[in-house]
Design brief:
Keywords: Membrane, Transmembrane, Transmembrane helix. The protein is mainly α. The chain has a domain of about 300 residues. It has 18 helices and four strands. The strands form two sheets. A two-stranded antiparallel ribbon has the order 1-4. Helix 8 crosses helix 16, helix 9 runs antiparallel to helix 10 and helix 14 packs antiparallel against helix 15. The longest helix is centred in the C-terminal third of the chain and has 37 residues. About 35% of the residues are buried.
């Protein structure tokens, strides 16, 4: 019985991992590929690719057997090359349709190779912008705005605890990717609407993990702390998570299985951390050994992540999250020690939602605009300083920045200097700046 159930589970996983499901969903949403025919490649090249992060990847069966399901899927979803070669273009009207509909390229080039990606056709602009927004909910620029907004304008205590969960979810997600080492869905048949993370491993979807853990953690931490309707908070969390998860399939970055796994994995991590978040926060704020332990823990975990596999952007993202967590935790400890940021007493809970009127709203927006501008300026300055400094420290040539950052010591130093400083400024220096401007 157990063997039968296991076999069914394996079949289900293989079914959900099929890239044709991603291609069908993209077609349903109005995404069309413009795949070019493969030129003459050697038999060895057809057998396998060597991806930049060291994974030896078997090509999909579509390259070898024209009658496989994937080849049929390619023919069905490719408006350029899915047609019969013997049929003239004038009869099919394909070229005319492509010219009239226009073509789009991915919004950001690949982070590793600077590849801008292949053109594709968008027939539903609304869904394209909706899912682009959804995928941005898991990217750096969103969090560099969202966490400060939460810290400066809503609830610093909740912000600290959500950041702890976010850091650990990213660490577990990225390191699991490097251990499992599954590559992105095959293209064709999948259209790569996004190529920025294309050369990272894909199992599980870390976007799905952060897009699930952050809103649900925020909901569970604020429901008894703030006064608002339960259904409203739950609905926001579900919609946020659903949008991010579906956007990763739309972008062609993950299979259905990888997104589901990321969703469930994040809930498991969240369930493990929620009961101890108050204890972690109290320790970070008040323990005399907290600063040393924070640095040792976050730097040590970064070094562990860098040792799991050869260099790729996922290691840098892991170090970036850990650096952010370390910088924020150290700044929070300093705030507590100097009594600069005092959490509301338990007797004042639950807190009432502030009224959205002219003056408070204006101050909120002003804090956000000024604060984020300061953080972006700090990030730009530290980026200009960190790489040359790290290269000089470790004797690495700095004329080729991309190559220099593939050195683990340089990349680790760069991430901690830049994002540790940004997080420290966000939690400690920017609130002091607000105090000077009478914006607190």
């Amino acid at each position: 019985m157990a063997t039968v159930m296991f076999r069914r589970f394996v079949r289900l996983c293989r079914y959900l991992q099929d890239p044709c499901h991603v291609a069908r969903f993209q077609q349903l949403c109005g995404v069309r590929g413009t795949f070019s025919r493969r030129s003459g490649a050697t038999e060895k090249e057809r057998e396998r690719d060597l991806s930049p992060n060291g994974a030896c990847v078997e090509r999909c069966d579509a390259d070898r057997d024209p009658d496989t399901d994937i080849r049929k899927c390619v023919k069905h979803h490719d408006p350029v090359n899915g047609q019969n070669k013997d049929v003239p273009a004038s009869r099919t009207g394909t070229e005319e349709k492509l010219d009239s509909r226009g073509r789009v390229k991915p919004l950001r080039k690949n982070s590793l190779t600077d590849d801008v990606g292949q053109e594709f056709i968008i027939e539903n602009r609304f869904l394209f912008y909706l899912f682009t927004m959804g995928t941005e909910l898991g990217n750096e620029m969103f969090f560099i705005v969202f966490f400060p907004f939460l810290m400066w304008n809503v609830d610093a205590c909740v912000s600290r605890q959500v950041i702890v969960v976010w850091v650990w979810v990213l660490f577990f997600g990225q390191t699991t990717k490097d251990l499992v080492r599954w590559t992105r869905p095959a293209s064709p048949p999948v259209v790569k609407v996004e190529v920025f993370y294309n050369f990272e491993y894909s199992m599980p979807s870390v976007h799905a993990m952060t897009g699930t853990s952050v809103p649900f953690c925020l909901f569970m931490l604020t429901y008894n702390r703030w006064e608002y309707p339960f259904l409203f908070g739950l609905s926001v969390a579900i919609c946020w998570s659903f949008l991010v998860c579906i956007s990763r399939i739309y972008m062609g970055m993950h299979s259905v299985l990888e997104v589901i796994t990321g969703f469930l994995y994040s809930l498991l991590i969240l369930a493990g951390f929620l009961p101890v978040l108050d204890d972690i926060d109290t320790f970070y704020l008040s323990a005399s050994m907290a600063p040393a332990l924070i640095l040792l823990l976050h730097v040590g975990l970064s070094m562990l992540a860098f040792s799991l596999d050869s260099w790729s952007t996922s290691r840098g993202d892991t170090a970036q999250a850990l650096a952010t967590g370390a910088g924020g935790a150290l700044a929070s400890h300093l705030n507590h020690w100097l009594s600069l940021q005092i959490d509301p007493p338990a007797s004042s809970l639950p807190l009432k939602m502030p009224s959205i009127t002219g003056a408070p709203l204006g101050r909120t927006l002003l804090r956000l605009l000024i604060g984020v501008a300061v953080l972006l300026a700090v990030r730009a300055i530290m980026k200009a300083i960190a790489i040359p400094l790290a290269c000089q420290l470790f004797g690495v040539p700095s004329n080729d920045v991309r190559k220099a950052r593939q050195n683990p010591r340089v990349e680790l130093t760069y991430r901690f200097l830049v994002y540790g400083t940004v997080a420290f400024c966000c939690v400690f220096l920017v609130p002091l700046f607000f105090l000077c401007l009478n914006l607190s």
